[in-house]
Amino acid sequence: MVLSLFVISCEDNDDNNSTPAIPGGSGSVELVQTQNEFVWRGLNLYYFWQQDTPNLADSRFNTLDEFYTFLNTYDDPETMFNEAPLRNQDDRFTFFNEDYRVLANAQQGVFKTNGLSFVLTRVTSGSSEIVGVVRYVNNNTDASSKDVARGDIFSAVNGTPLFFNSSEDNNLDLLDPDTYTLNFATIENGSAVSNGKNIEFTKVEQDINPILITKTFDIGGKSIGYLMYNRFTSNFDDELNTAFASLAGVDELILDMRYNPGGSVRSSVRLASMITGQFTGQLMLRQRYNDKLQEAFSEAQVTDNFVDNISGTSLNSLGLEKVYVIATDDTASASELVINGLRAYIDVIHVGTTTVGKNEFSITLVDDVDNQYIFDRTNTSGIAEGNLWAIQPLLGRNENADGFSDYTGGFSPNVTSEEALTNLGILGDENEPLLATALAQITGATIKGIRFVKDPIKPIMSSDHMTILKDDMYIDGDKIKDAMLEIKEN
After folding, report:
1. CA 38/CA 41 separation, integer angstroms
2. CATH 2.40.400.10 holds for 114-206
3. What digits encode the pLDDT tens for the residues 195-239?
4. What are the angstrom distances between the C-alpha of 454 and each of 189, 451, 457?
5. How far is CA 355 from the centre of its chain?
6. Residues of the chain whose pLDDT is less than 50?
7. Quick one: fold of 208-457+467-484?
8. Which residue ranges make up each domain of the chain?
9. Rounded CA gap, 122 and 105, in Å?
């Protein structure tokens, strides 16, 4: 088996012979672009569409010289991936980073931020003029010490008005620097008009707790829990479990993931298990890898079951048979995984708009031959000196216990409700439009003027998509690494 040969051959630490997809021996061509080699080899083994990508075929190169000549054609891994091409046409989400350390920190919730969460949207349909709308401010950040709040609107950065004509024709890079000044405005007659407020913000590297709000409403004799959760970050899973302890005894739960772009698959399994609790040990999701890996892995190696603990600490599960989820077109990957996984077992009532439709998961690969190119944050000594590149390729798709995984078009809401440019409301307040809509599904209350708004926010981009992780969904490297080692031992 090709995969078995790959794993065994890595023992000799000879990169030239680490996979039978590349001819062994020596050649006359010197490998100059050394950083490209681990990317090709890693993609040849792990990439979900490997079997459908001609330049990743096991038979692609007849000689080592041919392989090295191919690698030397491209200046860096990202250029090679996009121009060779190695990217499959269905791949919307694979990305690179020039420093794996930055990526690894971000996956643990540590990244540069000023604490502002905002969305960029057009002032009027068809206009190139755009504004930023503050969604919320993270606690204990630079922004939390400034005069800025949810619903505030900015139209310029450092005095330059923002515009967006296309992904190639815009000036959103004004928001890239660590320090910038936002120029705030009000909307008058379909245009942004300066209100004279200008605030400087500075990004610093810090950890961000994704649990923004946890509270309980007592309405009509029912106890209704509310949790706003903004990213699946495994470093905060213990805090998530503590949040669920405060929700013990609720009759209903509203899970607000309207701004949640995704994250750790492990955290999504834990969250789904906290919502339920009665399905411990039963299948929540099954991974579908490329042909090489799917053939080699056992059933246990490609499944994740509902759990009842985190490292021995019992989960504070609610035992619910129904959950109300607020989800929008900024809800992606691991958030959608929770929705899909739970739908096989309980009722999921979706309030909001259609979600992103990211059903593929990824993993972090680095130039570490002995570790099968899988990044291991507990041991980085095997990473090739001088090569900090990381690739986050798509490895496969998750399906639920019913075998369903085809939601690339996103999940459509049971009840449509959109945020309005001029009426965002206060997060966690029972009159906030989306929360009010969700509460009405539970209480049967009649609401007016909330579901359909005159000035809905149509996102061009959110601040989450300007971070390194964007809407990534990743499995923890130790799971697939352990599977590879088990194959090696057998």
Report:
1. 5
2. no
3. 999 999 999 999 999 999 999 999 999 999 999 999 999 999 999
4. 13, 10, 10
5. 13
6. 1-2, 4-19, 449
7. 2-enoyl-CoA Hydratase; Chain A, domain 1 (3.90.226)
8. 2-89, 114-206, 208-457+467-484
9. 33
